[in-house]
Amino acid sequence: MPELVLTPRFERAFARLIAKNPSFREPIENALQRLATDIADPRLKTHHLSGQLAGLHACSVAYDCRIVFAQQKHPKTGKKVLLLINIGSHEEVY
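The structure corresponding to this sequence follows.
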């Protein structure tokens, strides 16, 4: 199971999103659990990004809520790490 690492940008975006929509907390937590368990879970609709975000991935939390992340290996342990980069609406994250 990969470790989830939150960037400061993700933490700020998450706090803003929850402040605006407190009801998003549970779906986001569920999506993060699914992401850590199985990145290919069909409910997440995980996909590769292109253009300026090439090399990154995104998954869906709700109709208009996306998580942008990168897959990396931990430099010391070599274990898989998911670096959570951003969260928000389609327009906010792309």
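The chain has a mean pLDDT of 94.
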